[in-house]
Design a protein that fits this description.
Layout lengths: L25 H14 L9 H5 L5 E5 L5 H9 L4 E5 L3 H14 L4 E4 L3 H5 L7 E7 L17 H10 E11 L2 H12 L8 E4 L17 H8 L6 E7 L1
Parallel strand pairs: 1-2, 1-4, 2-3, 4-5
Antiparallel strand pairs: 5-7, 6-7
Length: about 240
Amino acid sequence: MTAHKPGDPTTLNRLYGRSQGKPLRAGQQALVDTLLPQIAVPPEGPVTAERLFGEDRPLHFEIGFGGGEHMAYRADLLPDHGFIGAEPFVNGVAQALVHVRDGRLANVRIQHGDALQVLQRIPDQALTMLYLLHPDPWPKAKHAKRRMMNDGPVQLFADKLKPGGEFRFGTDHPVYVRHALMVMQRFTGPDGPFEWVTDGPDSFRQRPSGWPETRYEHKARTVYGHEVWYFRYRRK
């Protein structure tokens, strides 16, 4: 794996932003207390398909899954694949657990906390898919280093994806999309680890097949009138 410099976002040991909103309902709290321990990512050691699911299988990783709609949809679509989701917001974790329970999704494992701490424990070239959908934009310039789309994390994404694996990124924030494209310019091209998967000049405005609309995206589009951008990058 490529070494990361001190102060790089991949080495931060704290999370920015809130971790809980309104109090959980009794049923949600019960799922956090009972179901989450059964499907939680182990706190230490390597994170592999064999360890999580008892067998080798394609692995997917979602950073900041929100309410878990996308992760649940993909896990139901691909029951023979393994899905790892990381989310620091306990209300989102609780909602994802509802999806896991109602969908009887045996192929999902959840990290309530920092995605990068888990990602660093996954062996290099082990992931088939990696998703970063509508991350916190941290729009102020002084907070740019807190954005997930920065050189350190993106290099980590490249390290963990197998050749031919895919990184999917989506946002509705114009500041973030400009920043992300600037970062990804350094990772694409002849010498970069990624190639941009595109079907034409406007393909990033069209949601690809197998990419469901989340509640957050629907609200951004219909309530706030935001444009949404979708990006796919393939590991060379």
